[in-house]
Amino acid sequence: MLSVVIVVCTIIVTGASLDPTCFPGCKNTKSWSSCIQHEPNRPSYNRPHPEGICLSCTAQLQRQSVLDIKNSSQPTTACLPNNNRVAIRGFSFGKLSVQKLRPPQQSEVRDLAFIECGITDLEQGLWTRFPQLRSLQLDFNNLTHVKRSWFGDEFQTMTFHFLSLSHNFISSMDSKCFQNLTSLVTLLLDNNSLQSVQPSWFYNLKWLRKLSLKSNSIKIIPQHTFNSLSLLVDLDLSSNVLTYLLRETVEGLHRLRILSLGGNRLLSLNKLDMNWQLGYRLFSAQRIAVRVNEALFCITESPEMAQFYHVQMQHDNHTQAAQPSVELKSQCTFLQQRTKSQTKYSLPLILISVNNTESDKHAGNITHLCQHAWENVPAVKVALPGRTQTLHIVPVAVDKSCKPQIVAIVLSDVNSSQLQGSNYNRGIEEMKNVTCVINTWEKTHLHVFTAPMSSTPDGTVCEQQTETVFNSPYSTLCRGNKAFDH
Ligand SMILES: *[C@@H]1O[C@H](CO)[C@@H](O)[C@H](O)[C@H]1NC(C)=O
Ligand SMILES: *[C@@H]1O[C@H](CO)[C@@H](O)[C@H](O)[C@H]1NC(C)=O
Ligand SMILES: *[C@@H]1O[C@H](CO)[C@@H](O)[C@H](O)[C@H]1NC(C)=O
Ligand SMILES: *[C@@H]1O[C@H](CO)[C@@H](O)[C@H](O)[C@H]1NC(C)=O
Ligand SMILES: *[C@@H]1O[C@H](CO)[C@@H](O)[C@H](O)[C@H]1NC(C)=O
Ligand SMILES: *[C@@H]1O[C@H](CO)[C@@H](O)[C@H](O)[C@H]1NC(C)=O
Ligand SMILES: *[C@@H]1O[C@H](CO)[C@@H](O)[C@H](O)[C@H]1NC(C)=O
Ligand SMILES: *[C@@H]1O[C@H](CO)[C@@H](O)[C@H](O)[C@H]1NC(C)=O
Ligand SMILES: *[C@@H]1O[C@H](CO)[C@@H](O)[C@H](O)[C@H]1NC(C)=O
């Protein structure tokens, strides 16, 4: 009896048959999730339920005959199924239009996704046919330029909160292109071809909480780019080619709690073979995780004593903490569980990781290493949001192939207006105790030295500086292009 019921149900589900003239070569399969697959980036608060409709089209992309509305002998029936969630995968649309979709008169679609649909453009006013729309995914399509006309006035009356344009070929966007998306909460632009970011793109996104620009080719983020995003909580800029983040860029982001940064591609400016990732969290306490090649640094604010930090470092590759595939914050959690350090340090703080192969030569001269890390020109400079802190990554020594063997992370909390002040009071310059923690494969060493405030690396950075050659006595190889040519 039970099996009969199941058979009947199956027939009904698969029998929600598709008019073959609608989307030739497509099958109505299982559920929404079979079209969407894995969505690690989508926050749980706006993840659609697994049910819904997935039209899965044959690998060989199909082309649909465009309905000529004027031809009355053609069927005028709707093509796009009327369901809360509709996803289409693998159908070739080119320019997405009402005529190609043929949505029902009263479309109930709330979550709409077109994955691998060869979409190159969107017809203006298309979304007026979807008054209930709240999320739209256009991943793995052929979009190259985001037009302002794609998201018109119709969005003003919708509670539209999720837009993903990830995995396209987007290299530019109209200014104010999202200006009507006033209720947008999540905007994903992962894995596109953006080389820079314009402040005008984010105009009017008053409610945006998550912005992801992961895996683009972004080199430069102008000052005040994210100023209009006053509610932004989560900003992902990882896997780009950034070498700095300015104080002015993070200044207005009062709600920002999660920041991911990285230059996972080579720092080609310096010919330096250095992959870096930074994961920053600021909830009740601060947590900073930095990975430079295989070395992992975890800096966690002490929950009992603010402004004091616990520190963990690792550079062997035998534990789970050192697996690059594992998320950075999980790596630090593993490491913390393994090494329960109770020592607390205050800022400024230098953490130095010495690779085993080089440790014999250099680690002996700890004083020198610390001084060197403090004074040397960093390869990466990042202003941290929420606090007046800057984090620098300094390759202290590199090997023949320009891979850092000794890396320093310098975290300081010096306020640049204080610095300017101290320059006026020459002679009574304030001194700071700098804590330097050095980790070789065998041992951890501690060295504290005093340095005048004016020598402190401050947050001011400019593009020229990032091209500066390292004046490290160990590295004569990894020079900028100019120096190399001469
Ligand atoms: C109208 O559609 C029918 C069926 O697709 C087709 O045979 C016919 O040629 C069309 N007529 C015009 C005028 O486009
Ligand atoms: C979209 O891009 C893919 C891969 O580059 C290409 O094979 C396909 O023909 C393109 N489709 C359209 C409609 O431009
Ligand atoms: C909505 O977008 C349209 C088209 O880009 C634009 O003309 C209009 O001014 C926008 N409306 C608002 C309120 O921003
Ligand atoms: C990035 O996008 C391209 C083009 O759509 C795709 O082929 C590639 O698989 C994507 N990469 C990732 C990591 O998703
Ligand atoms: C140590 O140096 C060797 C040789 O350059 C390199 O292959 C290895 O990845 C380095 N290990 C770490 C932890 O950086
Ligand atoms: C760890 O590093 C050592 C030396 O750099 C290498 O011989 C070994 O294969 C690495 N092990 C893993 C699991 O990557
Ligand atoms: C440490 O390095 C400095 C600068 O290179 C040098 O002057 C000093 O003699 C070294 N000290 C030792 C103990 O090697
Ligand atoms: C920086 O220092 C100045 C002068 O000491 C102080 O007025 C200002 O509030 C400080 N700024 C921050 C963000 O701490
Ligand atoms: C630096 O540390 C020493 C020893 O703990 C202490 O006496 C001194 O006051 C500290 N100096 C500053 C500027 O904090």
Automatic annotation (TrEMBL):
Domain of life: Eukaryota
Record carries keyword Repeat: yes
Signal peptide limits: 1-18
Cellular component, GO, one term: plasma membrane
Entry keywords, A to Z: Leucine-rich repeat, Repeat, Signal
Protein name: Leucine-rich repeat-containing protein 15-like
Species the sequence originates in: Branchiostoma belcheri (Amphioxus)
